Amino acid sequence: MTRIVDLSNPELQALRRQTRAEYDAFRGRGLRLDMTRGKPAPDQLDLANEMLALPGNRDYFAEAGDDARNYGVLQGLPEARALFAPMLGAPAEQIFVADNSSLAVMHDCIVWALLKGVPGGASAWGSTMVQQTAPAFICPVPGYDRHFALCEEYRIRMLPVALTGQGPDMDAVEALVADPSVKAMWCVPKYSNPTGEVYSAETVRRLTAMRTGAADFRLFWDNAYAVHHLTGQQREIPSILDACAAAGNPDRAFVFGSTSKITLAGAGLAFFASSPANLAWFMARAFKRTIGSDKLNQLRHVRFLHDQAGLMRHMDRHRALLAPKFRAVEAALDQRLAGTGAATWARPEGGYFISLDAVPGTAKAVVALARDAGLALTAAGSTWPNGHDPHDSNLRLAPTFPSLADVTAASEAIALCILLAAIEQQTAARGETG
Amino acid sequence: MTRIVDLSNPELQALRRQTRAEYDAFRGRGLRLDMTRGKPAPDQLDLANEMLALPGNRDYFAEAGDDARNYGVLQGLPEARALFAPMLGAPAEQIFVADNSSLAVMHDCIVWALLKGVPGGASAWGSTMVQQTAPAFICPVPGYDRHFALCEEYRIRMLPVALTGQGPDMDAVEALVADPSVKAMWCVPKYSNPTGEVYSAETVRRLTAMRTGAADFRLFWDNAYAVHHLTGQQREIPSILDACAAAGNPDRAFVFGSTSKITLAGAGLAFFASSPANLAWFMARAFKRTIGSDKLNQLRHVRFLHDQAGLMRHMDRHRALLAPKFRAVEAALDQRLAGTGAATWARPEGGYFISLDAVPGTAKAVVALARDAGLALTAAGSTWPNGHDPHDSNLRLAPTFPSLADVTAASEAIALCILLAAIEQQTAARGETG
């Protein structure tokens, strides 16, 4: 395809008529498609159906002899912590097993930091709000809307920093963290939501070594897609806890993870992993809140996955179901948009999303066109703090939940909407009306 | 028995020698007994062993067609909310199903109130801390140590109010709530922890109708023992939500409950129930924290208990196991202490504890004597705010977890320790040494 901006006026108008006709034809099919959320598909959940009858009648003793049915064992069963230690890049002793939501663990870290402070800090993070300086989080963009929603909820300032393909722009990050009111940074270091990029070793090194104005600065290290590969080549990143310790900042990282996209999205395990000092802080707070997480679900996970090898075999089964969906999106985008200049998009090697940048100023128009054609897309702007993308460009595509046939149809429609929005914008820019 | 204070000096010394000898004999048995925590016994957990294999393979669709394995249904499955609606005294639409810990739900209400405020409030509860007036909770005493620990954690002032056998001293409560910094009150209205008392209808009425200085005052209504009867005569209290609505204060109560002492202590369901306005507030906060609770565990509970009749049948089975343990404690106390004036104790008709008041100034001594004889008791003072009982009198006995034989042996030892401590105190008061 020729770049849209390079088309002559008659060529542009011809392409506009043709694209509109194709769009109208798609709309006429009356489909109802949804590419909004990163949910596993039913066939992925089927992979874990065996868990529905686990641990099984009379199987409730943990290895150390604890009755998993009763109260206690606040930190979580040792065998469950050991099972997920490689995924979390932390020794089992430095892992806490929570309930089913890592977002909840992040939430709790934030409210505890606001109300109680964290190790190494002179005061609670919320106490600075009194002095009119709300604490701030650095927010690589595009990023995860639920991270940003937590900051909005608790009036934490958000400082966007561009992602580079190797992680965040570290020059910008290093400049921002000099401010002592900058208390933390959101990081999805591997197969990032939504760009799919993997933080480079150099990015990780600079994050662990940078000088921060706040003595109690924390990386909120949401390693949500640690084992969620989409290719046979599994990308790995350094253990952030080891790297922080090596850099002389052992307490810098809070690590979060879960099995929501490994076993069962609504009934998985979530994890907190960190330095001994941070873990002690977390456990002291958590023990005010609960007598312990659901240990039977921990046992259920151990009985089902067994060990690291079992976990990796299980993730291979997910990959077999997911990779074709991602390839279908990329194929549709390639076919319709390659060379047009209407969009650039990621080709993630893992994770749950494809990030796409449409022509600046068209993302909302694309979502509206898609909606009118029966296709739900994540709202434009949702990958930015406060739901506002200043470029009105980024779109997050979530191809995991629909069937492969629906993903294929939806992807063709998305490409069409992106192309049409770019053509309309170019047409308007030339002062012409159709 | 004669009252200890009425004994002649020779009689007192004779009783002292005899009691010491019996205590030494008990200590010599080298037992290791634990009456510290309100945990279900293994035979109680066995009652729910069927749940270990539920919901069962391929059983994951909720009534409305939702896939209970996946994300979503933030409020909880309608059938799970309906099942526990009678227990909570709330319509299913006004119930939220949380994870396994009602303490966690209380915790979250507190941190959200501190950071965000509650409906009807002009500001977040924590904002008054800036003005040197920390928010306060009224704390009926003796009460639940983990309630008080939450207040300690978040620097909430605690205002103790005496319990009367019909609930808290309402004259004292009504006087305290005139202060607008008094934001809330802990209530365990039925089979209270630890006194076992049941709030009277008049107490409930006054709690709902009283004028409060704070427009956003809340009753933290921890109805933990709603269906935990120890006798065939089931005590009932009015629905606090209905009573608040009738009194024109529909948003006054936050209701908490759980199945921790119904199904599996570490793997139950917890609940929040309240007015529509409070529920909307709670859900808006909760949806920042999580995409939803574990719905498979909700389905598991529905499949196991079926309905209100099934729930009550299940509680009858608990009662058959628990009532003998409570009777054993009471028998031992009666036999050894009746008429001595060394203690008064409750005869609860439900719940998990027996509250005992030893001679003022002896509770710590009793716990120390018990410890030396191999018997762990809850620390003296733990039923009071900040762990400090100004009378050094109250003891909380938890007879549910040990076997009946152990409860019997422990109760005899407890009675002996209480008697010995009272005798030693009386001896010291008379200026004599043994």
Q: Could you give a quick summary of the protein structure above?
A:
The first copy, chain A, is α/β, with parallel strands linked by helices and 434 residues long.
Order of helices and strands of chain A: HEHHEHEHEHEHEHEEHHHEEHEEH
Distance between the termini of chain A: 22 Å
Which two chains have the most extensive interface, and how many residues on each?
Answer: A-B, 58 and 58 residues
- Main sheet of chain A, how many strands, which sense, barrel? 7 strands, mixed
Low-confidence stretches of chain A are none
Which percent range fits the helix content of chain A?
40-55%
Quickly count the helices of chain A.
13
Mean pLDDT of chain A: 96
Assembly type: homodimer
Rg of chain A:
23 Å
Query: Per DSSP, what share of the residues of chain A sits in E-state strands of 2 or more residues?
Result: 5-15%
* Shape call of chain A: globular
The tally of strands of chain A reads 12
Backbone structural class of chain A: alpha/beta
Q: Record the strand order, biggest sheet of chain A.
A: 2-8-7-6-5-3-4
